[in-house]
User: Fold this.
Amino acid sequence: MSREPGLGALEDQLAVVFTDPSLLEQALTHRSFAFEEGGLPTYERLEFLGDAVLGLVVAHRVYRLLPDAPEGRLAKIRSSAVNTRALAGIARDLDLGSHVRLGHGEEQSGGRDKDSILADTIESLIGAVYLEGGMEAATSLVDRLFADLLDHLVAWQGSLDFKTSLQELTASELSALPVYRLAEEGPDHAKRFTAEVEIEGAVLGRGRGRSKKEAEQGAAEEAYVTLIERLAISSP
Assistant:
């Protein structure tokens, strides 16, 4: 079965050759494209599968890297490695946006660089690799794609407090400190807080919660993962 132009290069990056190229094509097919083409299979089922495989492989790697860490810290690191922003960063490293099959409307709205679409697609690819080559192939792929990020998360995350971890990271690597901005809404008995964290003039994280602390921790976590991705080459 013939491959679409450019997919061979993606297979080289994944180190997987699909015996059924339609499986790889499905892993790259957004619902907008599928609808315009009359109802093709989308990547959503593969995304579901890939999410489970990714979670297991990352959990296993973190478990091995931190043999004495409590469950809470392991869970925090896993969450930071597989959240939408982190997955989108991995997808951008693969230039995955250029391969995603999008409908015209989604294309025009910048879908190729949307975090949500990129994150979904990296998971669907992992699911497709699992179906093609089994758990060994999927584990090898996840290990290669996520090794640097996990190593840095393990090295930097000295506590479960992302505000502290972010401040330590920015002070060490950027000689700067994060600045938080808070907004609140709702009645006194049911307030919701939204936090943004700005570093060197750029908003790198946003969070929501029922308390100021929860919102700021969410914003700090998002910014922390973003910076780890950006500093992966130079960070220890």
